[in-house]
Amino acid sequence: MTTPHEGLTHLKTYDVKDSNVELIGSDLDHKVKYKSASTEPAWNNGTIGKVDGLFVWRIEDFQVVPWPRQRVGDFYEGDSYIVLRSYKVGQQEELSHDIFFWLGSKTSQDEAGTAAYKTVELDEFLKGAATQHRELQAQPSSDFLRLFPRITILSGGVRSGFTHVEAKKPESVLRLFRVVKAPQGQTPSGRTATMVYEVEPTWKSLDEDDVFIIDQGEKIWVWQGRKCSPIEKAKAAEVVHDMTLEKKIDTEVLAQTDSRSHLIIEQLGGDVNTPPITTSQTPHPTSATSALASDSALRRPRRLYRLSDASGQLLFDLVRNGNEIQRSDLDGNDVFLLDTGLHIWVWQGSQASKAEKSMWIKVGQAYVRSLEDQQVEAQAHLTPLATVKQGKEPAAFWKDLEAK
C-alpha cells in the first residue's frame, strides 16, 4: 500500500496564505458566523443550547424546518436532516452536544450542502462546544442508531432546488416495509433499536431472513420470513400497533411456512410460478456495518495521522499504527485523523491553525477516497465521520483512541 499521504497529494499544494481562506477560523470568521446563527429561527426558540433533549430539523428549500415531535425517527431517503442531542455528563452544569447531519441516499446536492453548512452554524451558535457527525443512510453509526428506539426510512422526500419526490402517498397505494434489528443500535434504556425500511412493493423484495409489513390501506399483512429472529417479530408487532393505533384496520400475520403465505406473495404481484423466497440478494443497508462489527479481521488497521501546516504547506502524515496509538500522540498545535477501521474521528487541537481546522471534513472525505482509490476498501466512503475539539471530546472518542 502506498503511504497514506500519497493518496492526498493535492493537500500538499495547499497554500495556507491563500487570501480566499485567510480568515477561515479566525475570531472575525467566528463572529460573522455567530451573528448569522443568532438570526436563524431554528436555533432561536429559547430552547436550543439551554435544555437537554433530542431536536430534529429537515432541510426544505434551503431552510431549516423543525421536524414534528411525533415523527422523530422518520427519515425520507430523498432528504437531509440535522439532529441535535444535548445532554449533561455527571454533575456538570454545562450541556454537551452532538450534532448529526444525516444525508438520505437520494438527497440532492443542495440539501446535503445546506445541512453541512447549517451544522457548522449550529455549532457556532453553541459556542463551538459540539461534536459534529456526518451520517449516511447506507451505514449509520452506532452513536446515531442509539438516539432512537426506531428509525424508519421512507421513500420520497420534499421539493428541492434540483429534485422533486413526493413525501406523501395516497392511502390506496400498496406499501411494503422491511423490519430488522439494528445491528449496533441499543437505546439508552438498553432496548434493541429497530430499523424499518420502505422497499419496492413487489414479491422480489421479500426474503426469508426478515419480517415485512404490507400496508394495503384497508388491511395490514405481516410476513415472517422462515429465518427471522424472535426480536424482529416482536419489533414488527410494535410497528403494526403504531400503524393501527388511530384507526381500526384488519391485521393478519402469516409465517413463510404457513400454507396461506401465498396470499401475501399474490398481493405483491406473484403467482403460482413465483420461485421460492430465499435470502435477499440486496441485503438491508446496515448489513455491511453488522458484518464488519462482528468480524474484527475485516477491519482496516487502526491508524493515527497528523494534519499540519507547520512547514508552510498542509501535510498529512502517518503518526502511529494499531495498539501503539496513545493520548500523548495528540498535539494541541495540529489536527489529527484517527481511523479505527469502523469509525473516523478528526481531532482538532485547540492551538491548531485556522487552515488546519477548516479542512477537517475535506481531509476526512479525501482520506476515504484514497482508501478506495488504493483498493484498500471499496465502501470506505460509508464509514461514519465525526470531528471533536480538544477539551470537548466525548467518551466514545477516548474509547476508540485507547482501544487495544
Model description:
By secondary structure, the protein is of the alpha/beta class. It has three domains: 1-23 and 299-404, 3-Layer(aba) Sandwich (Severin), CATH 3.40.20.10; 40-148, 3-Layer(aba) Sandwich (Severin); 169-291, Severin, CATH 3.40.20.10. Helix content is 22%, strand content 27%. The chain contains ten helices and 17 strands. The strands form two sheets. A ten-stranded mixed sheet has the order 2-1-4-5-6-17-16-15-13-14, with helices on one face. Strand 8 (175-186) and strand 9 (192-199) form a beta hairpin. Helix 2 packs across helix 3 (109-125). The longest helix is centred in the first third of the chain and has 17 residues, at 109-125. The radius of gyration is 23 Å and the shape is globular. Residues 1-26, 160-167 and 286-297 have low confidence and may be disordered.
Q: What are the secondary-structure elements, in order, as H or E?
A: HHEEEEEHEHEEEEEHEHHEEEEHHEH
Total number of beta strands: 17
Strand content: 25-35%
Describe the sheet with the most strands.
10 strands, mixed
The geometry reads as: globular
Number of helices: 10
Helix content: 10-25%
Could you give me the name of the CATH homologous superfamily of the largest domain?
A: Severin
Spans of at least 5 consecutive residues whose pLDDT stays below 50 are 1-26, 160-167, 286-297
CATH-defined architecture of the largest domain: 3-Layer(aba) Sandwich
Strand order in the sheet with the most strands = 2-1-4-5-6-17-16-15-13-14
- Assign the CATH topology of the largest domain: Severin
Q: Kindly, what is the distance between the CA atoms of the first and last residues, rounded to a whole number of angstroms?
A: 23 Å
Number of domains: 3
User: What is the CA-atom radius of gyration, in angstroms?
Assistant: 23 Å
Give me the secondary-structure category: alpha/beta
